[in-house]
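Table S2 (text version). Query chain:
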Amino acid sequence: MFVARCIGVSLAVFVLVYAALSFAVSRGWRFLLTAWKPRLATSSADLLFSLRMAPLAISVGVTLLFTLPSFLWLEPRSTDEAIGAAPLVLGAACLLLFTLGMVRAGAAQFRTSRAMAEWLEGGSVMEAGAKVPVVRTRNAPGLTVAGVRSPKVFVSEATMAALTPAELRTAVRHELSHVRRYDNLKKLLFRFAVFPGMAELQRQWSETTEIAADDAAVSNRREALDLAAALIKVSRLGPMESSPTLAIGLLHSSTALSARIERLFGWGTVQAPQARSSWWYSLPAGAGAVILVALTYNAALLRMHALTEWLVR
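Corresponding structure-token output:
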């Protein structure tokens, strides 16, 4: 009974924190993005991804660092106290949420693996020994990077024929930047972290990460014009074909295509500013948070246990 109550209470707290934070993010992400005003597209994409995944990360942290220890430390093991209706209902909702997320993520991985197998049929690797293989194939839609664990860049024969070597090199660099930023893995995490009302945030992330990939692919005006020409030529090959979830095409989103092309044509003669690693800026805040938690940890466990006792009743 003790183990059952521990699991029920932990799942209940998790789903309550996750639902509250997810609702707040789904309603407030535009305000936070406007208030923060990141200067670089990579920073905007990182901020949107962090906001999308924050409810899941914080919920896991609260459950593992506070809920579970408070129950194990303060709850008597010999009590015959019943689990209670609220933890049962909330725990069942949490398990349903986990199950739905795993099904969605598994289905996305399955569809992507099946599509990649079809694209590899009759394909040929253009550069042997490359860390991320670039495969020439008949079946892939335009220029696409697919996969999470072993990503590959697929180039259709029609795209190969339409682009000049310089345009193709720049377009491939665009796709490789998605690999370096683990964008398909992020999309897999989006599939797992289920919550309604997040579609617009994810669409904004998708468009912003395309601009970030454009910035990573070019370093001067000549390359910017090559990438813009590649976008125009690939768009003229025909309507965009649908890709599996864990794949990102050069024309991943048609809504931002004109803005991307206009931005590339306006590229200055001076090299565009590149994203700098800014994780160390958060070190003081992170260190302060760790010290605060350490100083108030016992009191926090007592308050969490009181909260879970109220929940059980």
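Notes on Table S2: The chain has one domain: 2-270+290-312. The CA atoms of residues 4 and 79 lie 12 Å apart.
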